[in-house]
Fold these 2 entries.
Entry 1:
Amino acid sequence: MDLSVIVAILGVIAAFLGTGVGYWFGRRSELAVAEWMREVRSWASKVINILSQASYGTQTKESEPPEQARWARELSALIEIGRFYLPNQRQDVYGMDKPLALPRISPRRPRPSCCCSQCY
């Protein structure tokens, strides 16, 4: 057999392997996107449910402060979860002017084990 025939056969085999691997990675990517969409839809369903409860409860004035606090807590948690699903695309531009979520602990704050008035 000629060397060019062997190289051609190896090229065809490499092309088929490349096509198979590309197809496999493509399907894997499609499955990952489908799973992400399922999770985002589930999250959105929870958000819509809490928003509708809060909207109905505030319009009918039948809600009590504990219910309103629960809605606020759940919405706050769902908003934070949504930031994991839908992060800012340009993180170096958006939100740079906002303060940090957790303030730095200053040395003048009272320690949990301390009960004296000098720490305040």
Entry 2:
Amino acid sequence: MGLKEKINEISDYFRGIEYFNDALIVKAAFPPQLNVIGNEEKGIKVAQSDDGLWYYFGDKNNIEIEDIFDWIKTTVYVYEEAKKKAALYKAKCDELKQIFGNTSYDKLETLQFVFDEKKPSSKRGGRRKKKSEESTQNENNETDKEGQ
């Protein structure tokens, strides 16, 4: 993936790239509530400026710009995931308020939380069988079983 694609992935937050002394710097702007951290393993450090921009940086001889962009993308992913979880939490709390308001105590004592497993979506791009193909295939399978 090229630099242009990396920038496009974080375009809502990306503010610039620069060299300063021996540091490679990528600037990003995030909402104030976002918890920004560096990645010492990859040599990525972060600092916030007075104007609220975040500077992701590392020694230009020891770090790849792709690593900085990937780390910013990880930061954005974690933030977006937390936002979705917070919205879901609020919605589920509202749902529970309705249930508690309309249900007897005895019945509420049996309340359980169960997760339905999502089936992974197929992204193979294969074509779907038509009903006539499915029924023909089923008939063929039945005929094969009878012949054995």
